[in-house]
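Render this sequence as a predicted structure.
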Amino acid sequence: MKTLLTPLLLILIALPSYASELPPCPKDQTQTYHNCFGTYSIEGDKYVGEFKDDKRHGEGTYTYPDGAKYVGEWKDNKKTGKGTYTTASGNKYVGEFKDDKKHGKGAATYPNGDRHVGGYKDDKYHGKGTYYYVDNSMYVGEWKDNKYNGQGTMTFTSGNKYVGEWKDSKKNGKGTYTYLSGNKYLGEKYVGEFKDDKYNGKGTYTWANGSLYVGEWKDDMNHGKGTYTTTTGELLSGIFANNEYLYKSVESARSDCAKEAGKSGTEYAAKQIEKTCLAEKQLEPEPEPES
């Protein structure tokens, strides 16, 4: 009895028909099909092609009950080699297969207009590849398990561009984001570290007017040590938090708070004033010395 295969999830378009040099298989499907060309059908599934040792082997076309179709190479009843897989919904894959899965180089197109060209592994985008989105955005780079992973370039619909490292389809690691579209950020650029699609770590942001921030970032905001240079060349260097300049240094901030507290008339009041001052600067009071 011939073994029937389960349809693949992706939907693809059939290759042209071909002629086989093998002799025809027996008309009786209960007989062994070996080194022959024939047709085998059962419960709506149909295979037309070459057989070896009673298995689909060589060139052949498999049509599924739902209208899906595979045209290409087979080995031991599995899609292995070059082929095209289609389904009625209009998705299409043309490329290499291994053990019934897309594996190697190939190209896929989808009914919404999206396209992917590149490497595949175990039915997933893997290795180098390019994805063309119907909205005119495009990703060119490395993939792993259907996600952007490694080095890659994303050109967005707006025209903005990111070049750098990715992890699980998010900007992670070192990279450059350039604003190239005609919005209020036109001409601005960030060069530095990313985490979870946001500026995180050390980086440099250049504004279109020439001002510049070099330093630490957290969730897309100036946060930590940094230096802001104005359009006139004035420097503002020190500690930033949530895009706001706090103070020159931790030491200077503590010194300023101590001076403010020193104006108080009592020790208790001085401690409260210093504590409030430090809290405004997002600092904790220094621990009391052990007696």
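Summary. The first strand starts at residue 36 and ends at 42. Residues 150 and 290 are 51 Å apart (CA to CA).
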